[in-house]
């Protein structure tokens, strides 16, 4: 069997979670909109997280500006956004559609 498209949602494992049991063995043990995902120390059926497309091409800035990360990974972003490096820090972007314009930084 092939896996269903999509990915398992991000989770934080807690060693105190009990019991450890596999409630599924592969994606086809689950409903049509679910995948069999590792959750803590066992597997269970969870809603599919769509695979996000790639980040758009970065637009290099020609001006000095302070760099700051607005996110560290895709899980920090809204459902339809990705955390993308854009030449100076990571930002929440819609895949292939948002274009970051260079911003001039003026010294006072």
Automatic annotation (TrEMBL):
Record-annotated WAP domain positions: 1-51, 52-96
Entry GO terms, CC: extracellular space
GO molecular function: serine-type endopeptidase inhibitor activity
Pfam families: WAP
SUPFAM superfamilies, per database record: Elafin-like
InterPro entries: Elafin-like_sf, WAP_dom, WAP_four-disulfide_core
Protein name: WAP domain-containing protein
Protein source organism: Gouania willdenowi
